Fold this sequence. Notes:
- This protein is α+β, with helices and mostly antiparallel strands and about 270 residues long.
- It folds into two domains: about 5-135, CATH 2.40.50.140; about 170-260, Winged helix-like DNA-binding domain superfamily/Winged helix DNA-binding domain (Arc Repressor Mutant, subunit A, Orthogonal Bundle), CATH 1.10.10.10.
- About 30% of the residues lie in helices and about 25% in strands.
- The protein has eight helices and eleven strands.
- Strands 4-5-6-8-7 form a five-stranded mixed beta barrel. A three-stranded antiparallel beta sheet has the order 9-11-10.
- One of its GO terms (cellular component) is site of double-strand break.
Amino acid sequence: MAADQFSGGTLMPSQFTEFSISPSKIRTPLTLIPVTVKQIIEAYSSSEDKSSITVDGVNLANVRLVGLAMNKVERDSEVSFTLDDGTGRIEMNRWANETSDTDEVASIQNGAYVKVHGHLRGFHGKRHALAFSVQSLADFNDIALHFIECIYVHLEHVRLKGGPTQLQLNISMSAPSMNEYLAPFPNQFLAHSSMNDFGNDIYNLVLGTFHEPAMLAREHGLQVDELFRRLPLPKNKIMEAINYLVDVGQIYSTVDEFHFKSANVC
């Protein structure tokens, strides 16, 4: 998917100001880069220098992750937890040195979605990150937005390098009311579509929107035009994803051919 395909909808590439990319900035370690756990794990596994993690030619130091907080353990001045973003899991540590830190640590709850700004350093033989900011997510649009940003930044980094733009996130998104994650889509998912290597990720983003609690609570589900506004992706790709999800029984039409609802209501 070309980077200019993100120009539709409400999210424009120029809005990615937090991590604006230029050739002179691409290797700056202080840049806060949105990534998935899968990217970190694969980069760590393929790196000979475990203290320096590189993705798409960029040294990862400060990163942003979004996922589900699990296995929280509190100590006197520290809390540790596992972050699961649907692509993998990573251990996080958050120190509480001030009152504001203590309040933030207390807000971390098992089963809650959080946005983490963290620092990857000296893995010491284990994948983990030191968090310097943990925020609870109340708007589930932030989850889909994060993965879209991951795709966009990946494309920009690879474009600057002049390499092929391929990324498999295999996102398995869920809502807190669900008992377990959705299974990643099988490889034949792409064979059904004329999309490129990002087709799988688009399907997951579309399905993840239908699985948001607010969408599950609607009697008639989600209207197609609203989905177009929520996801800054080409309309034909969104419709292709909808048609496939209907074919495999993940969603179904309700009052008319423009309203759809998830078939997996827990």
